[in-house]
Amino acid sequence: MAYIPLGVAFGVLLTASGVNWYWAPLSTLLIYAGSIEFLAVGFMVAGLPLYQVAFASLIVNFRHIFYGLSFPIGRLRGRVRKAYGVFALTDETYGITSACPGAHLTGRQITVVQVVSHAWWFLGALLGQVVPESVKGFEFALTAMFLTLAVNAVRSSRSAALVLLALGAGAVGYVVDRYVVGESFLIVSLLLYVGLISVTYRKDEEAAE
Fold first, then answer.
1. Does residue 61 surpass a pLDDT of 90?
2. CA–CA distances in Å: residue 93 to residues 22, 79, 100, 157
3. How many Cα atoms sit within 13 Å of 118 on the Cβ side?
4. Is-above-0.90 flag for pTM?
């Protein structure tokens, strides 16, 4: 249900930017990619060329490559459900379906989670059309949601090492983004974190043998 205030925030932003209201429900149905939808409002207003939009979308949604490594798509039966599972894979649904107790959800339950989340996002975008622009604070819902998912993930894994690796990767990503290559925080942090946990996993496997 946290998608409702997120959708409302998107609807308010879109309306305040002077974009026709019907783009809110259309984008929630066809794009449904969270943060890139917010950026897309600026793209539409600025009239950016398609190649710039495509590149920005790749950078922002680069993290989804790593989600695919552990998303339980094998539990989804049929091409339609698998295709929708990939399309509707967001940060929040990934966090729910890949961590305990969500890691034990059946394929049907995963699909229900994604459909309900998609519906809440759509509803929120519609509600955003009637909320006054003067109302503030909806944008914090995204931060609050990520914090909640992060806390639940730490509680589920109970691994201090993974948390330290994530913090270290984030610190390196921040330094690279600030002093070396701008707008590279997410890519650098994710690549480094995947590399670190891969090395840790290999060492644990060798120790077990």
1. no
2. 25, 19, 13, 18
3. 20
4. no
